[in-house]
Every structure is written in C-alpha cells, then in structure tokens.
Amino acid sequence: MPVLLPKEFKQASEIIEQIEHYGYEAYFVGGCVRDLLLERKVGDIDIATSAEPHVSQEIFEKVIPVGLEHGTVIVRHKHQSYEVTTFRVDDDYSDQRHPDSVKFVKTIKQDLKRRDFTINALAMGKNGNIIDPFSGKKNLKNNLIKAVGDASDRFKEDPLRIMRALRFSSQLGFSLEAKTLDAMESVVNEIETITMERIVQETSKFFSGVYVKNGLYYFRKINITKYLPILKKNPYIIDRLPANIKPLNAFASVIAMLHFIEPDVAIRDWVKQWKCSNMIKSEAENIYEALLTYQLDGLNRWLVYRLHGCNYRDFTALVNMLFREKLTNEKVKQIRNSLPIESKKDLTINGTDLLELFPGKTPGHWMGETLDQIEKEVVLGNLSNRKNVLKEWMKWNLHETD
Ligand SMILES: Nc1ccn([C@@H]2O[C@H](COP(=O)(O)OP(=O)(O)OP(=O)(O)O)[C@@H](O)[C@H]2O)c(=O)n1
C-alpha cells in the first residue's frame, strides 16, 4: 500500500516528476522516508536520482552546485531547498573525502546498499510506493537499528556511524541489533579518526534525544568514552549522569551539566578539547551560573534576569534532573515577565547622571560598579527604577571622596 503523502512531500514530488519527465528515475530517500513512516516530524527532504548532476543543472532553473564531485546539487523549488544526489556508492564519508571515493551507480537498490542502517535504506516514489530491499520497514516496526549488509564494513566506511547508531537509539528509543552492536564495539576505537566537529554534532543530537536513557545504555556498553576527549581520562563522569536524565536541546547545556557533575574539568577545557565555538562557551557559562545560583538561593529574579531566554528550557530540565525538583518553564517565564527591567539600558540613570551627581569624582571603575549594584537592587525589587529614588540611594551609599 502506498503511503499517503503530506503537503511538504507533495510539493517535493514536483521535482521527482520533473526528473522523470526527462526520462530519469528519482526517489525520496533516507531520513525523510524513515521519519514519515514513523510519523515523526520530517527534517530535510532528500532526493536520489539516476540523473547526473550536470543533468539536474539543466533540468532545473535554480540549482546550487554544493558537491558536484559527490553527485549533489541543491534544487530550489517554491522557496524550499532539496538535496538531489545521483545514485552512488561511497567508500569514504570523512570531511576530507577524496572525489575518487564516490562512484555513480545505475540503480536505487545499489544506492540503498551503501547506506548505514536498514531504517535509513528506504526509498519512496512520488506516489508513496516504498522501495525496501533490506527490510527497513520491518525493522522500523520492531524498533531495531540494524546495519545494511556486513556491519563491520559499514562502520569501517564511516566510524561516525557508530555515533549515529547511538544517536538513533536516543532519538527513536530503538534497540541495537546484536551483530550491529558487536561490530560497533569492535571498531569503536576508530572514532578517534573522525573530526571533532562531526562528533560534536552527533553527541549534541544524542543528548537531545527523547530516549537519551536508552542511548546511554549503549553508549556505556560499547565503552565509547575511551575514545572521546576528556571522557577518556574521566570516564566516571558518564557514570555520574543523573539517573532521570532528560533531553537537552543545546550542546552548551550538555557542557554545563558535565561541568556541574565534575567541576574540576573547566568549561573552557570542554570547549577547547571538543572544539566548540565561543558561542557555546558563553551559553554553557550562562547556564552553569544559573545552576550555581539555584543551588545557593533557589529560583530568584536575579537568576532569571541573568539567564538567556534561549536557555530557559534546558535550565528547567537540568534543575529537575540535578536537584530533583519540579520546576516548569512557565514559572521561569512568569518571573521574567514580572521583572522591572530587561537590561541595564532600561535603568533610569546612566554614567552621565553619576558624574553630574558627584562632580568632584573622576570617571573610573566606580561608575560601572555602582550601576551593577543598582541594577541588581532594581531587579530584586529592593529599589524602584525611578530617577529620584536611584539618585537618593546613591547619595546615601556613595561619598564624594570615596
Ligand atoms: N554516515 C552516513 C550518513 C548518512 N548516511 C545515509 O544518508 C542519509 C541522510 O543522512 P543525514 O541527513 O545525515 O541523516 P538522516 O538519516 O537523514 O537523519 P537526520 O536528518 O535526522 O539527521 C541517511 O538516512 C543514510 O541513508 C549514511 O549511510 N551514512
């Protein structure tokens, strides 16, 4: 029975129709078919075709040649982007892969054969008919992650697939088939050959999985910590993860959690060794600061004021995991909405006012420090954000000669 196509697939099927019109084959492939069959939210819609990239470039008006040597172009259609890739086999999935590692092949079946897991080796025609040479549908039904063909070969082609398997077990809650798991265990050391950027991407998806507890079971089982920076020297950190671990959306939150569990490993060391951006570093510090404040004082206005909005959800999850509380996102938002100011800029006084008030003083650190103090008092509700009130406060607390 063909699958009923949702709107986004119907629009994408216009691309398939167009390719077929020119006498070539084309199918939806990979994660989008898997997620459609699982009734999960579908991410990118990828298309595989017998047409070579130069043909796609001729067929479509808006084509971005993102990886011609690997057979990939992006087709823009009705304001959406679709990766269209020629049927191929690939012996090398690394970032620095050599163009010679890719060979174009004739059939969709050959293309599906080089893919990592049976649940990802599914193709679907424009009318929803499924092509499933490796029983991917059965494995989806049985919640099983099973490598296509020889598992060791699949993992040796791209050791990142070991992390992908763990990531799918965390996202989908699936089990790992015995031979697939054995193969992962026996080649797990090859993880060290992969660039940190790819490892971080997968680890981040791993910790955001709804079934992260399930994923962690396999993570521990294959001893992957032996081959990951920092964790190889401190494997106990993983054992100390909260038993009621919850999904975390951002990798910064994962770093904050790991640093909270083992404060001897600094956030800057995680960031350096896992080659993360400065943005991840500052968000990790922001969340960690909030966790420490919570541990000392509980949820207060100052904590919420300092915490970046993008971190609310993960902070709430971390509090519930690490302190076994029942904090809700709504509670945090409620406090945020009750704050008298959103940032220092909203204070009714500024540096110029300070200098006017104390003409004898020379500009310096005292100005920033005073404004910091006032900011905190206003946020905590101890001072009203009215110019005359703040001026009065300063007269009492600061002296001309200080
Ligand atoms: N190392 C890899 C990476 C990808 N693939 C294949 O390429 C498809 C697309 O890969 P990608 O977009 O990275 O992952 P998805 O499986 O689509 O999952 P998601 O989009 O959720 O990350 C996969 O389904 C799989 O068939 C593979 O065989 N080996």
TrEMBL record:
Keyword Cell cycle: no
Cofactor(s) required, per the database record: Mg(2+)
InterPro entries given in the database record: Bact_CCA-adding_enz_type3_sf (IPR050264), CCA-adding_enz_C (IPR032810), CCA-adding_enz_firmicutes (IPR023068), NT_sf (IPR043519), PolA_pol_head_dom (IPR002646), PolyA_RNA-bd (IPR032828)
Binding residues annotated for CTP, in chain numbering: 31, 34, 115, 158, 161, 164, 167
Top EC class, one word: transferase
A single BP term in Gene Ontology: RNA repair
List of residues binding ATP: 31, 34, 115, 158, 161, 164, 167
Pfam families, alphabetized: PolyA_pol, PolyA_pol_RNAbd, tRNA_NucTran2_2
Boundaries of every tRNA nucleotidyltransferase/poly(A) polymerase RNA and SrmB- binding domain copy: 173-231
Ribosomal protein keyword on record: no
Reaction equations catalysed: a tRNA with a 3' CCA end + 2 CTP + ATP = a tRNA with a 3' CCACCA end + 3 diphosphate; a tRNA precursor + 2 CTP + ATP = a tRNA with a 3' CCA end + 3 diphosphate
Keywords: ATP-binding, Magnesium, Metal-binding, Nucleotide-binding, Nucleotidyltransferase, RNA repair, RNA-binding, Transferase, tRNA processing
CCA-adding enzyme C-terminal domain residues: 258-393
Annotated residues for binding of Mg(2+): 44, 46
Gene3D superfamilies given in the database record: 1.10.246.80, 1.20.58.560, Beta Polymerase, domain 2 (3.30.460.10), cca-adding enzyme, domain 2 (1.10.3090.10)
This enzyme's EC code(s): 2.7.7.72
Oligomer and partners: Homodimer.
Family named by the database record: Belongs to the tRNA nucleotidyltransferase/poly(A) polymerase family. Bacterial CCA-adding enzyme type 3 subfamily.
Role: Catalyzes the addition and repair of the essential 3'-terminal CCA sequence in tRNAs without using a nucleic acid template. Adds these three nucleotides in the order of C, C, and A to the tRNA nucleotide-73, using CTP and ATP as substrates and producing inorganic pyrophosphate. tRNA 3'-terminal CCA addition is required both for tRNA processing and repair. Also involved in tRNA surveillance by mediating tandem CCA addition to generate a CCACCA at the 3' terminus of unstable tRNAs. While stable tRNAs receive only 3'-terminal CCA, unstable tRNAs are marked with CCACCA and rapidly degraded.
Other facts: A single active site specifically recognizes both ATP and CTP and is responsible for their addition.
Listed name of the protein: CCA-adding enzyme
